[in-house]
Amino acid sequence: MLRGKHILVGVTGGIAAYKVCYLVRDLKRAGADVKVVMTEAATKFVTPLTFSALSGHAVLGNIWATDQSTLSSIGTQHVDLANWADAYVIAPASANTLAKITYGLSDNLLTIVALASRGPIILAPTMDADMYINPVTQQNVTRLQERGFFIVPPEEGEHASGLKGPGRLPEIRAIIETIERVLDKASRDLKGKKILVTAGPTFEAIDPVRYIGNRSSGKMGFAIANAAALRGATVTLVSGPVHLETPRNVERVDVESAEQMHDAVFKCVATSDAVIMAAAVADYAPERSAKTKIKKGATNKPVSLQLVETPDILNALGQKKNKRTILIGFALETDNELRNAQEKLKTKNLDLIVLNSLKDKGAGFGVDTNVVTILDKKGKTAKLPLMSKLDVANEILNRLKGLL
Ligand code: CTP
Fold this sequence. Notes:
Bound molecules: cytidine-5'-triphosphate
CATH class of the largest domain: Alpha Beta
CATH architecture of the largest domain: 3-Layer(aba) Sandwich
CATH topology of the largest domain: Rossmann fold
Number of strands: 21
Distance between the termini: 26 Å
């Protein structure tokens, strides 16, 4: 898996930097071509000479370097490095560097390359336990993960400071396994394909203050967008109101109502090779949305809302379907699951439908895992075990690839 792969290793300042010498050695032994970029702080822990000897390349770090021998071209080394790498692994990733990457700061070569890179980036957060469990660091890690950075979780144990807790650099083997898994996920096999994904709930306004919504977090749709972008597809993500970061290399269009989602989808569909409707579109909306806030006690009568059906986006896509565009829908069911999903697949004229049952443990709203059954129009049914939403996304994309 690693043979011939270009692996860029970013080293930040931390006592665990010395262990990364073994990472570079093992990657080389596995046949990878390895280059190392260090922050200035990292050079206080391990000398660049050590990494040069282990990697067989001059260590990079000086953004102002003009020495021809270490550079492919002067002035663009950050872009060259980002393009060169099949994967970029930052280990140890200090709290400071994680924060910089979260906010797009790029004051050294390591962080500039992180900002310039479109390829997969793996981070191994490593620091004293109290720094790691600090909510600021935790929030940064979550945000980076949502954007599609891969996190190798730190190990728990004793730190050089004497503190005990999470934050230790994981075993080198665990980092290498993550790199292999990531390379597999970032296979670029969907390069050149345009995929339109919808995600999240829709909000249907009652008045300027209130709305009808649902519990969808958007995580499944965002995972599909992220997975497709990693595999090289050009991805547009039409999202209802969610609290999630946009995955890297994904174009996001924010909408609120079913009608707005309908319009946004139909704007892009003509140029899309596939549409994956993971959004939990509201089925009903208030017939009229009040222009001003509905006041309490305006009448003595009970208040009732007249609801009308929203446009069924997927159904409309199915009825106008051309041969080129693959249509994938979701079905969220609580009973008669298979029968209802088969019915939706047929009536909405879909190529695939992904059945979610709220009965399954680990499936449903807000969680990072899912249990799905994928049905195709030939009647084939595949029930998948409990998986991360990213793995479910790749299962869907594997089947999509076979249809494209
Ligand atoms: N869908 C849509 N537009 C709607 C409602 C649903 O495009 N107005 C899409 C969803 O994104 C999903 C699929 O249709 O991919 C099925 O959604 P689901 O809510 O399971 O089924 P419905 O068709 O709404 O039927 P019901 O709620 O009666 O089960």
